[in-house]
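seq as requested:
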Amino acid sequence: MQKAFFLITLLASALTLAAAPVALAQSDPEALVKKYFEALNRGDAAGALAMFADDAVFDVPGGLCAAAPCVGKAAIQKELESRVADKFHFTILKNYVSGNVVTSRLEIHSDTIKRAGVERIIGWGIFEVKGEKIAYLRGARPYRADSETARFAEWQRAQPPAR
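struct tokens:
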């Protein structure tokens, strides 16, 4: 009986150790977010889109998804293509990771930002990752304590509504 218990314990331990690398390698939310920004920075909307789940939600102020969150890859694709056309460039200032959620503090450049008379703005992105895909992206309002970001926000408010 003791020999059987020992063998069962040994087998269970071996299975646990064999499965551990798979569980650890299953998802790295921070690396996925970095890859997403790298794709956008090189103008690769399709590459950035590939990182989203089929039913992902893109909820970011400004752009095509401002009035209502974009849901699904087809809607998100149009937003990402728009960002690439506007030459968005993101620099991650700091990532905060909690489980499968990554909150990124970002420096953001684009042609629209330059038209406002500022070089860059500071913003936030909150990503929820499921498995190897971005399931939800929520962009927070820009960081208005930063003078350039505050000037951009004022410029935005002065713009006529989009038709």
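Strands lie at 52-59, 70-71, 89-98, 101-109, 121-130, 133-140.
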